[in-house]
Automatic annotation (TrEMBL), chains A, B:
The keyword Nucleus does not apply. Residues 48-117 form the Cyclic nucleotide-binding domain. Pfam families: cNMP_binding (PF00027), HTH_Crp_2 (PF13545). It comes from Craurococcus roseus. It comes from the Bacteria. InterPro entries: cNMP-bd_dom, cNMP-bd_dom_sf, Env_Response_Regulators, HTH_CRP, RmlC-like_jellyroll, WH-like_DNA-bd_sf, WH_DNA-bd_sf. Keywords: DNA-binding, Transcription, Transcription regulation. This is Helix-turn-helix domain-containing protein. Residues 179-253 form the HTH crp-type domain. Coiled coil: none annotated.
Length: 265, 265
DNA sequence: AGCGGCCATTGACCCGAGTCAACGCGACGA
DNA sequence: TCGTCGCGTTGACTCGGGTCAATGGCCGCT
């Protein structure tokens, strides 16, 4: 999956060294292997590179660094210089922030094809970390701008992704502002399922790449409340759990109605 | 401010007719008056048109419709065809959604220069309505795309605005997910002040173009809780109210610390 | 096979914000 | 001038979700 970068050095299990720094200095072999590296990319059809032809893809490959990282690896921290933009080629990640007094919050989950770390500010307002084993591409902001000039279709695509991210974040605002705990959990499970379906996943069983604590931090709840809400949905027969990292939606219409906020009406 | 469109017909006080439909059929006089219409625009330095030269501005003026609208005028509704993009030239507006059971939520406030209604979907997920008397520009999505091709700098600017909106929305997610009622109100007042400062406003007194109910719907609270929080901040001597539509920040560092989430630590 | 750590679940109690209700005040029209 | 209406404020009570704590299952390690 990440052959072009070199295995051992890229896959790091929680060492203090940043994964991209670890890959620094390895032979980049610009231009070579672009086909093998990008052509078979898991995010090829949904991500930033979707509209690119073979030549542009080759150009892109030469400008980006790609690494495979372990679960729970930070990609960048809040306050870091926002000099790069990241795309998630494979796996799941989340954006987080910790408040001065220690409260922890997640502002969103990201799946294959999503972009991370694009901001108008000079530093990252949020940190990002992987939830699962993942493959990450990193581009320098200035190089990306240059790419935009060479391939206008790339800029158009980037704007689309940005708008999609905005829409998802707005949806999340609504959920945090007006939904109850159980509604939020229903909303989360449903949107996670839809995100996986958009990426080609079929069937009523989906991946759940998050612990109760992760979900709680995303939904503005505590892990106990999430656990109770999941149990309640299970007892109603609307969802089923398959181990700790997969779930099944057994009563989709009911779950959707709850997630949309059909309280009593 | 909106002379080119014609006064009487454009300023509507809560009639069922949509403001842009009311302006339909009026003489557009393409090309004329672009200088007077756009040159002195309140959002000229912060909005979408900021990087445009005189010629491009003229082009833009010919492609957009502009109306002045009364406070509390809906611009579009959730579910409407997302065929246009709106920019707020002057005044304040908010994006709202009403849940099936009647719960009302606002996902954001927008001020001069901000864009509204840009979404990857075919319909608007949220409605928009003015809070104050406002001036609105509307562009057809397809015409905007064509403009992007004629003026690449416009697309770059649009992407910047989109990223700014994303950053603001993410910040809002954090507030809703992890801040207490009083912290949220402090956060809101501070970000409203900062938004006005970014637009050139000076001094510790700022506009408050929202009722307690508006603020509550934005912050995921009730109007009573907002009122109590405002009173508490006033009693601490951190803010002062000037009538119903202006407020003063008298202890900015304290307010900022509270808004950032410095609970006990 | 036995042990220990991590994660999830469940229960009992508490608190911050929601709910319901009364009241004050300024704007506006009769 | 007075009555009314919309908005804001404040109080008393309720309740959803947070907090604290005990228990149990799964998995990897030895």
């Amino acid at each position: 999956m990440s052959r072009a970068v070199g295995r051992g050095a890229a896959v790091i299990e929680g060492r203090p060294l940043h994964p991209f720094d670890a890959a620094r200095g390895l032979p980049r072999r610009p231009g070579t292997g672009a086909a093998s590296r990008c052509q078979g990319c898991g995010a090829r059809s949904v991500g930033l590179c979707a509209p690119l032809g073979p030549a542009a893809l080759d150009d892109m490959a030469a400008e980006t660094e790609r690494v495979a990282v372990a679960p729970r690896t930070p990609l960048f921290h809040q306050g870091d210089d926002a000099s790069h933009v990241y795309t998630l080629a494979e796996g799941a990640a989340r954006l987080t922030r910790v408040l001065p007094d220690g409260r922890q919050a997640a502002i969103g989950f990201r799946l294959a094809g999503d972009i991370m770390g694009f901001t108008p500010a000079t530093e990252h307002a949020f940190g990002a970390e992987t939830l699962t084993r993942a493959t990450i591409c990193r581009v320098d902001r200035r190089r990306l701008d240059a790419m935009f000039r060479r391939h206008p279709v790339l800029e158009r695509r980037f704007l689309e992704l940005c708008a999609g991210e905005l829409a998802a974040t707005q949806d999340h605002v609504l959920a945090l502002g007006r939904l109850t705990a159980q509604e939020r959990v229903a909303h989360f499970l449903l949107s996670l399922a839809e995100a996986q379906e958009r990426r080609g996943r079929r069937g009523p069983v989906f991946d759940l790449p998050a612990t109760r604590t992760d979900i709680a931090e995303l939904l503005g709840l505590t892990l106990e409340t999430v656990s109770r809400a999941v149990s309640a949905l299970r007892k109603r027969g609307w969802i089923k759990l398959h181990g700790l990292s997969a779930f099944e939606i057994t009563e989709r219409p009911s779950l959707a109605a709850l997630a949309a906020g059909e309280g009593g009406a």
